[in-house]
Amino acid sequence: MRKLETKTIVVASHNAGKIREIQDLIGPFGFTAKSAAELNFIEPDETGTTFEENAIIKALASAKVSGMPALSDDSGLVIDALGGAPGVYTANWAETLDGTRDFHMAMQKVEKALEHAGATLPEARAARFVSVLCLAWPDGHTELFRGEVMGTIAWPPRGDQGFGYDPIFQPRGYEATFGEMSAEQKHGWKPGEPEALSHRARAFKLFVETCLEA
Prior knowledge:
By secondary structure, the chain is α/β, with parallel strands linked by helices. It is built from 5 helices and 6 strands.
């Protein structure tokens, strides 16, 4: 376990929604952070088969190029009825022929796959969002933090908050989807509080406890 001694880090991501969420989480802790996108870093190939492997690839790439600690996130939607898909390929499901990402199309793809699997009832549509944060240093040291939130796949999509698959993910115990929740509702967590709602906030809580708290 290594403590983070600096307040200047790189957010190792080119995903605007993910960058915004990570910056919202780290902001209250006094961090100065620029993203890999802002710094024009080349996106590394995500060749891992697990969230952990891909998070390490991204964080190490930014840490070594910048010479500063870098924080990455690899996350995805895991659906039981689809054998864990889309999983680490969550973003790939949104890729279009012109190289952009269309998450409305991706959500339709999920729904069609669930219908094909006969998963039409809520109890057959169990899913979880997974987030793995990796903090990497230029010398190659890494720390990993995993957060998960259980829920179901809702249809049709609801809400225009968040990003990605948020409008079809309804966390367990809530009537609203992530797409209907404000950033504070979705990520609301402060030191001393017992729980966070979103997968990314839960992973971030572990990061704070491990690398920031004395």
